[in-house]
Amino acid sequence: MSGKIVILTAPGDISRFRIEDQYSDLPGPGEIRIRHHAIGVNFIDVYQRRGIYALPSYPAVIGAEAAGIVEAIGAGVADFKIDDRVAYAGPPVGAYCSARNVAAERIIKLPDSISAKTAASSLLKGMTAHLLLEKVYPVQSGTTVMIHAAAGGLGSMLVRWAKSLDATVIGTVSTPEKARLAEACGADHLIVGRGADIVAEAKQLTGGIGVDVVYDGIGGGMLIESIRAIRPFGMAVTIGQVAGPIPPVSVEDLKPGKSLSSPSIMAWCADTDRYRNAAKAALYAMEKGIVSEVAGEYGLADVGRAHEDIEGASFAGSILLIP
After folding, report:
1. Which pLDDT score, from 0 to 100, does residue 194 have?
2. Is residue 190 a contact partner of residue 167, using CB atoms and an 8 Å limit?
3. Which of 273, 256, 257, 274 has the alpha carbon at shortest distance from 265?
4. Nearest CA-CA partner of 32 in 96, 78, 90, 65
5. Can you tell me the distance from the alpha carbon of 322 to that of 307, in angstroms, rounded to the nearest whole number?
6. How many beta carbons lie within 10 A of that of residue 68, not counting itself?
7. How far apart are the first and last CA of the chain?
8. Do 66 and 95 touch, CB atoms closer than 8 A?
9. What DSSP string runs through 190-246?
10. Could you tell me how far CA 288 lies from the centroid of its own chain?
11. Phi-psi region of 142 (alpha: psi -120 to 50; beta: other; left: phi over 0)
12. pLDDT one-digit tens code per residue, 244-257
């Protein structure tokens, strides 16, 4: 069956995307061909398109997660059948297309309660939330967390997941409208406005101590502010650079006893066992309603507009490509 594929010809702006016809090959041994019903758009896609995260070669196909149905099965695959509802996330990238052959060990069966759109919007983000909240800094009852961009695709899921662990959540957002969305996700306190003094407000909300952990997907100058907002022996976790490159951090910035972590969900789930455990945790969370809401849907031909909207923070929530 034919379809469409999005080719990234070279790193750069959205003009580097080219839409071509796709003619799917049969899956090889140990592979499954998935007919995509929904494809997740994530900031890692933007970083790869820009060349911030370099790809091995060009032209290339990006995209780290998708959901759909099993269309064909390669030799040696016993645990799947045609029309099974499935999803996948993580490396290797290549999801921006109508159909794709993927190693069977990377395929996750979807329960009936989780739609393809929910899976494509929330699997990678749920795996990331699992990594950040349960592995990098184990959050528990009484932990005070700060989550930047708390109404965004990942931020909103982090808020919901942290509240399920009985944490106190301080969210930062750029507008009152996004504050209302983050509050609906469960945030206990909101710091509103791009120019807000997050250090002063974090200290005021914690009796002068600072928060236990900050999850910073903004980067740029925000990282130093995030470090200053944590308590002694707390942790700042940098997970993105929407506002610009991560600046150098000196040892003096981390006194007394503060720590800085820069985890990568793509590196974490390159290991198959860790990947499947993280995906299991994400599916369990999704079944409990811990999801990233779908804020926009685009056809493959509109991939450039989807990237412009996610870069411009036009939406609160996740963006999907629908083949």
Report:
1. 87
2. no
3. 274
4. 78
5. 14
6. 26
7. 13
8. yes
9. EEESTT--HHHHHHHHTTTS-EEEEEE-S-TTHHHHHHHHEEEEEEEEE---TTSPP
10. 18
11. left
12. 888 889 999 999 99
Helix (H, G, I), strand (E, B) or coil at 131: helix
Q: Which domains does the chain have, with CATH numbers?
A: 2-110+293-322 (3.90.180.10), 124-263 (3.40.50.720)
pTM summary value: 0.95
Residue found under tokens 């099974």:
84
The residue ranges of the chain whose pLDDT is under 50 are none
Note the pLDDT tens digit of each residue in 1-12.
579 999 999 999
Residues 6+ apart with CB under 8 A from 28: 74, 75, 101
Q: Is the peptide bond before 256 cis (omega within 30 degrees of 0)?
A: yes
Q: Does residue 141 contact residue 164 with C-beta atoms inside 8 Å?
A: no
Cβ neighbours, 10 Å, residue 174: 18
H/E segment holding residue 176: helix 176-185
Judge contact between 151 and 316, C-beta under 8 A.
yes
